[in-house]
């Protein structure tokens, strides 16, 4: 052994020779030797004795390990000698056995560390060992004997689970007496770490159990059979997994893990497809089963009796579709429509929906056709022809086309007859298949017959037109006795469509006639001979065209006389007009009329002229060349003849009157009239308004207060015009009536030509005017606005608060007061989507019928004003979630980890796929609305993932969070003896006030370890002391916390907390006073003598001394003196070495061999010299301390 090699401190004393007990190293506890008493004891040599036994599960309590009784591992057993010194330690293996071998003879006892007994077993029987303190009785090893019979018997501390899987018919979350169990359901039991520990299968009554369950936290998972679904449970979720639950020692969890199921696919739908004609079933017809989204689920064919059946159906809504075969049509049905689709069928999962039937009839492809015509072959159109069965049942009615043809198609095989009308103006002429009453004979058709030979020929009864074209001398439109007919006029007869039917010319008496006219509508045009014009009268217009004439059979029309007049001479004056007035109006000037002007009158060309123009009978302007005018008062006006198109009379602002006579170039008087010139009017200069605005309510009345300025104005009349008469009306006197709510203006204007205008702003409000429309009485209690051009959308399953399919609209005025919709009307662009219900006087209900689609809705008040116009849309009902799939059913993470829960809602077309995430313990893990999670602290919990559409499907995610920095153990390290000691909560850490660590510092060094045994730096840790005078905390080394004592004796409670304030350890720290003398301290060294085969390789005797620095100060010199026992003479003096104060210092001397030493007859004395004082450490015969063939053994 090298000088610098460290050896373990074992206390004071001397070890001679080598002691090895079995394979346990090092186990020899040196005896204490008192030098003062000069007593020397020798360590016994190793022996061959043993003690062994087994710790086992003593299930039958007989204290004997029987077959099937398992050993119990992990129990610490200590072997002590009769002085209480620890000899060896063993721990039971998986077989429960422990053994101490190679024991020297002596008296021993065993001690079982009771803290290592299994927590899931209870101590049941004992043999040889006291169960209270773990100590055995003494036993003796002698002559290498084997000792046994020292053991504990245990009984497992176990619980049990007994529950049921059953059909929860009434969904009350408990198993009732009448509810049957579900057998063969597999349930697995898992421990807290997710390891499966047991399996069970439900029996015929649904019962299942787990026995021998060790105390702890578990969760269970049931495999819900395919034909069942989750119904209820206290612990199980809809995925068949429970949350964590606890089983205590000897506890039976009874009925708490019951799982209620409901049958999933025991419903059925049945029906029949029949022949409507025979009542027999139709075989081989395809019948489809669909869900309410239209997805095809299954197709079957009807059997020989026409029946069909769908079985094994789960709960839900369905409909069936009969695929109507080619050659058949729908006739009738029970639960079916004409398209072959049934109504919705609600299945509970265990009911049968029957009594569905559809009756089909064979398609008919026969045709019966014919014609209605005249003897000339002209078709008679627009006549309704009807088809009857032979029993008189009307089947169809069609109208003849423009060719008189009629046709009845798609007829089934059978006998029929046809009835055709004989319209007014016609008589029976001939037929093929018809009688003279219009009824055909019976016609038989096969399924594909085509009968088109029917004909009914009718002859028309005719009429005529006879009237006169005459010379209307007095131009009154009526032929007088003295007014003769005009020959040579052309008369043309037209059909109502404008086609020429006939043309004739009047005879010498002016007579024209159209004979043999078929009854119908016509008109006549008369073209006069040269020199005549047509004069409009009751029969003809001035264009010579009559109105429409209805000619009936056997009728003679004689009231179509046409009035002609001779064409006028172009120069003959027929009328006169005063033209070019500034107001743009032309005024008629008749004989003896008076024209009155002001003396400031100017025409539209700003000339002081009164312009008169003359017209002939045709309205043409007469040339005034050669015309003359004479005046009774020539100084008042002057004529101007320069314009051949008129005569102008110029006034001179002189007032008065004159008779004007106008003659043509032939001197004929063409007009006589009077011109009066008056003084000029006083024009208006302003309008004074009493108010510039009107603010009123509907139906209020009032008057506009307006005055013309100046007060001397000639014309004070005002005109009042409403810009929007639907809002307010105003009469000629300014009286107004408010009609409806709105804003507009009233224009007040002078009428004397001054064109002065003032505007009055008008605001009309309606206390009953609707400013807000609300959709009320929703089940969610929310009142929603209904806006013009908005969209109101509901699912076709919508019901209001009162469970009626009504969208309830209520109306409010600007004050927020409810207005009854009295007299309101509602129109729909598609009335098949919804209808209006006015039953409740406080609202209008839009009633939907579950049909999907959109319609424009217009709501009008009693006056027809549009209150709201919007789109009303009915969509297919929301698709509920049916399942929830988790990407993983568990999360295992470290503190600070993040992730996202993968969860998918089924089906993929579910309307609402939003999920909620709820952790059972958010201090361990938090989850946001999107499933993003953050691990917060170590622990186990669950996260409930749940649908939010009301389907209440829930799945559970098990969560285990570990903290890599969580402290699992605290150890007191860097002791001079090299031992690492645990520091436990509520424990006691005791040191002498002279304690120094390996680095000769008064530090108790604490280090911290996680569950993996890795060192954790105590960053952010704090230490508190109940008595801070005893010790302080030093954080200088980042890898530990040092409790620094100051040699003061006493105790203090120490609490260590991590950075989050969690208590890591709380214990008592005790410093005791150390009062050893220097003599005791220097005598605490160990001495070893080795004879021959030393570790250095040289032959001879070696001396080793091991001082303890806690006791032996530096500067102590150790020597070994050897004396002859008989003579007492000193013959050898060896200085082994001097201490330097370090722990485990090896003082070793081989420089001066002690070969002169004898094994017998010598006395050895060991001395320690310190500060000049020599202390005797030990003395005795040399044979007590060494023997031949020994080896140095004290080493780490």
Automatic annotation (TrEMBL):
Location of the protein in the cell: Secreted
GO cellular component labels: extracellular region
Official protein name in the record: BIG2 domain-containing protein
Taxonomic source organism: Listeria booriae
PANTHER family (alphabetical): CARBOXYPEPTIDASE REGULATORY REGION-CONTAINING (PTHR23303)
Domain BIG2 stretches: 683-760, 880-957
Location, primary (coarse class): secreted
Keyword annotations from UniProtKB, A to Z: Secreted, Signal
Pfam families: Big_2 (PF02368), SdrD_B (PF17210)
Keyword Repeat attributed: no
Domain of life: Bacteria
């Amino acid at each position: 052994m090298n000088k610098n090699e460290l050896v373990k401190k074992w206390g004071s004393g001397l070890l001679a020779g080598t002691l090895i007990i079995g394979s346990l190293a090092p186990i020899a506890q040196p005896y204490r030797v008192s030098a003062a008493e000069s007593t020397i004891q020798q360590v016994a040599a190793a022996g061959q004795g043993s003690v062994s036994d087994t710790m086992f599960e003593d299930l039958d309590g007989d204290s004997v390990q029987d077959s099937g009784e398992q050993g119990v591992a992990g129990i610490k057993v200590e072997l002590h000698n009769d002085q209480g010194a620890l000899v060896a330690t063993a721990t039971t293996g998986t077989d429960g056995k422990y053994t101490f071998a190679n024991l020297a003879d002596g008296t021993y006892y065993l001690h079982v560390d009771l803290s290592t007994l299994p927590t899931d077993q209870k101590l049941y029987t004992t043999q040889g060992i006291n169960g209270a303190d773990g100590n055995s009785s003494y036993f003796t090893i002698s002559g290498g004997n084997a000792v046994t019979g020292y053991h504990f018997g245990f009984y497992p501390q176990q619980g049990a689970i007994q529950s049921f899987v059953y059909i929860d018919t009434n969904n009350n979350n408990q198993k009732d007496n009448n509810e049957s169990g579900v057998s063969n359901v597999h349930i697995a039991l898992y421990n807290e770490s997710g390891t499966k520990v047991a399996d069970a299968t439900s029996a015929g009554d649904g019962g299942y159990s787990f026995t021998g369950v060790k105390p702890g936290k578990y969760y269970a998972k049931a495999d819900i059979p395919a034909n069942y679904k989750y119904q209820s449970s206290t612990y199980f979720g809809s995925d068949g997994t429970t949350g964590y639950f606890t089983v205590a020692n000897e506890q039976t969890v009874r009925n708490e893990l019951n799982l209620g199921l409901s049958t999933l696919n025991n419903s059925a739908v049945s029906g029949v497809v029949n022949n409507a004609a025979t009542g027999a079933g139709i075989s081989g017809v395809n019948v489809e089963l669909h869900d309410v989204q239209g997805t095809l689920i299954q197709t079957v064919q009807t059997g020989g009796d026409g029946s069909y059946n769908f079985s094994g159906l789960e709960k839900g809504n369905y409909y069936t579709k009969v695929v109507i075969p080619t050659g058949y049509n729908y006739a009738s049905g029970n639960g079916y429509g004409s398209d072959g689709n049934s109504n919705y069928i609600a299945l509970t999962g265990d009911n049968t929906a029957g009594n569905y039937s559809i009756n089909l009839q064979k398609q008919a492809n026969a045709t019966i056709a014919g014609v209605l015509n005249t003897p000339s072959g002209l078709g008679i159109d627009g006549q309704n022809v009807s088809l009857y069965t032979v029993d008189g049942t009307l089947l169809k009615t069609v109208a003849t086309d423009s060719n008189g043809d009629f046709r009845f198609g798609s007829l089934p095989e059978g006998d029929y007859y046809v009835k055709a009308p004989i319209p007014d103006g016609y008589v029976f002429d001939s037929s093929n298949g018809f009688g003279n009453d219009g009824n055909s004979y019976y016609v038989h058709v096969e399924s594909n017959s085509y009968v088109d030979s029917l004909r009914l020929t009718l002859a028309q009864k005719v009429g005529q037109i006879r009237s006169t074209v005459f010379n209307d001398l007095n131009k009154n439109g009526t032929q007088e006795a003295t007014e003769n007919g005009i020959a040579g006029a052309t008369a043309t007869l037209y059909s109502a469509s404008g086609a020429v039917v006939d043309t004739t010319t009047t005879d010498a008496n002016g007579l024209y006639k159209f004979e043999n006219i078929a009854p119908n509508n016509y008109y006549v045009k008369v073209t006069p001979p040269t020199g005549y014009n047509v004069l409009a009268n009751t029969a003809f217009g001035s264009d010579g065209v009559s109105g429409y004439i209805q000619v009936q059979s056997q009728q003679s029309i004689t009231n179509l006389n046409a009035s002609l007049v001779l064409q006028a001479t172009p120069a003959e004056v027929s009328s006169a007009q005063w033209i070019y007035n500034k107001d743009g109006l032309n005024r008629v000037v008749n004989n003896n009329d008076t024209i009155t002007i002001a003396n400031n009158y100017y025409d539209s060309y700003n000339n002081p002229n009164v312009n008169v123009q003359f017209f002939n009978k045709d309205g043409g302007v007469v040339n005034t060349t050669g015309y003359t005018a004479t005046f009774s008062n020539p100084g008042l006006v002057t004529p101007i003849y320069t314009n051949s198109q008129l005569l102008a009379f110029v006034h001179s602002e002189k007032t008065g009157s004159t008779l004007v006579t106008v003659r043509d170039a032939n001197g004929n008087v063409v007009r006589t009239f009077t011109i009066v010139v008056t003084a000029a009017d006083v024009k208006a200069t302003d309008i004074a308004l009493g108010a510039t605005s009107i603010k009123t309510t509907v139906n209020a009345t009032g008057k506009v207060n307006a005055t013309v300025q100046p007060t001397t104005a000639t014309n004070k009349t005002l005109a009042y015009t409403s810009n929007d008469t639907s809002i307010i009306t105003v009469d000629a006197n300014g009286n107004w009536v408010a009609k409806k709510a709105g804003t507009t203006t009233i224009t007040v204007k002078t009428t004397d030509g001054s064109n002065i205008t003032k505007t009055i702003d008008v605001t009309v409000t309606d206390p009953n005017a609707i400013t807000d429309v609300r959709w009320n009485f929703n089940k969610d209690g929310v009142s929603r606005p209904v806006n013009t051009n908005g969209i109101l959308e509901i699912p076709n399953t919508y019901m209001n608060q009162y469970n009626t399919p009504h969208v309830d609209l209520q109306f409010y005025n600007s004050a927020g007061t409810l207005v009854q919709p009295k007299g309101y009307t509602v129109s729909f662009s598609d009335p098949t989507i919804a209808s209006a219900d006015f039953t409740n006087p406080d609202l209008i209900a839009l009633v939907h019928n579950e049909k999907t689609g959109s319609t424009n809705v217009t709501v009008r008040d009693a006056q027809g004003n549009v209150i709201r116009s919007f789109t009303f849309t009915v969509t297919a009902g929301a698709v509920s979630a049916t399942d929830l799939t988790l990407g993983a059913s568990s999360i295992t993470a470290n503190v600070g980890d993040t992730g996202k829960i993968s969860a998918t809602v089924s089906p993929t077309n579910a309307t609402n796929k939003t999920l909620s995430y709820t952790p059972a313990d958010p201090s361990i893990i938090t989850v946001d609305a999107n499933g993003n999670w953050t691990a917060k602290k170590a622990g186990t919990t669950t996260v409930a993932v749940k649908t939010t559409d009301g389907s209440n499907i829930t799945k559970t995610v098990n969560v285990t969070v570990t903290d890599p920095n969580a402290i699992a153990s605290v150890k007191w390290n860097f002791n001079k003896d090299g031992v690492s000691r645990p520091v436990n909560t509520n424990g006691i850490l005791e040191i002498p006030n002279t304690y120094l660590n390996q680095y000769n510092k008064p530090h108790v060094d604490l280090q911290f370890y996680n569950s993996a045994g890795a060192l954790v730096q105590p960053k952010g840790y704090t230490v508190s002391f109940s008595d801070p005078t005893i010790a302080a905390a030093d954080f200088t080394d980042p890898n530990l916390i040092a409790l620094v004592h100051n040699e003061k004796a006493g105790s203090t409670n120490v609490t260590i907390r991590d950075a989050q304030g969690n208590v890591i350890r709380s214990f008592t720290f005790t410093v005791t006073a150390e009062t050893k003398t220097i003599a005791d301290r220097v005598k605490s060294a160990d001495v070893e003598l080795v004879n021959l085969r030393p570790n250095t390789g040289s032959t001879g005797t070696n001396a080793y001394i091991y001082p303890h620095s806690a006791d032996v100060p530096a500067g102590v010199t150790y020597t070994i003196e050897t004396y002859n026992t008989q003579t007492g003479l000193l013959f050898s003096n060896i200085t082994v070495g001097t201490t330097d104060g370090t722990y485990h210092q090896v003082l070793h001397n081989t420089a001066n061999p002690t070969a002169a030493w004898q094994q017998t007859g010598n006395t050895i004395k060991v001395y320690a010299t310190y500060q000049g004082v020599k202390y005797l450490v030990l003395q005795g015969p040399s044979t007590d301390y060494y023997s031949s063939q020994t080896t140095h053994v004290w080493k780490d």
